[in-house]
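Morning!

This is the sequence you dropped in the shared folder:
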Amino acid sequence: MAKTTTLVIISLVLYLFFSSTGDASENKLSKEYIKIKINSLDDLMALFKKHHYTQKDWQSGKKEVPRITFDSVNENWKKTSNFMPVKQKKQVFFRLMAPLVLLSNENILQERTIIKSAALNSPQLLAIAIKYRQVKKGETKVTAKQRQQLLMQVDIMPPSLALAQAAEESGWATSRFTEEGNAFFGQWDFSGKGMIPREQRKELGNYGLARFDSPLASVEGYMFNINTTFAYQKLRDLRAKLRQDGKALSGLELAGTLDKYSERGQAYIDSIRSMIRYNKLQSVDEAYLSENILIKLITPD
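The structure's back. Tokens below.
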């Protein structure tokens, strides 16, 4: 392929990675947001540079991440991303997904603050307890024991681990399920409304892959799944122990509890740990969100 043609395709990749499908997520995220149209890879890199979100900034120790969101992955991303250098493709993926992980963690930390400080009959605390299935609708009070259980459940995921799993499960945002339903983490859905695999295993029942309204909703769904499903109790126990011991939440360490996330078991754990190490994702665990206005990336009309 001619060099000029290749450059043209690469310049369009970011146009094709994300697309704007409406304003459904904007009110939920923030009333103070700006929309920025991205026509090319150069446009995106210029935006990253403006907000000091480049490899050079990262290496210098600046770990501030702008609040960037987008609505979905465009169907052409799978084809066009093949023409990008692998390093650049990964950079685009991680830099677009990291803000979503940090936004999700921020919301969880806000819930933790309420759990720690609210009165046991607080409507806000009750709402969180119902959400995380500690109490049933209609109950008027949370017990002290339930408060402690909520603190075990309602906690963040290290960005390094979330990003590695997103890349692994979505094939760098090229899977059919990511394209069709913003599914970045391969979560199963037994409601009958999920996306059906081409080779469905009947012995597992009427399952599909869960759909989400946006990539952010997919990240939030992943964290809720980790924080509520019995299969990930080992992760929650280890995370609580790290908290109790005053240690940082390590993606590499917590990855060792994910033997139930995939049928591959230990091989899956090894793959995720390798992803974290090879891409030096541990440093993302030190990242923090900027206080800037929320940026919504959109494609031209």
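Headline: Residues 1-16, 21-31 have pLDDT under 50 and may be disordered.

More detail when I'm at my desk.
O.
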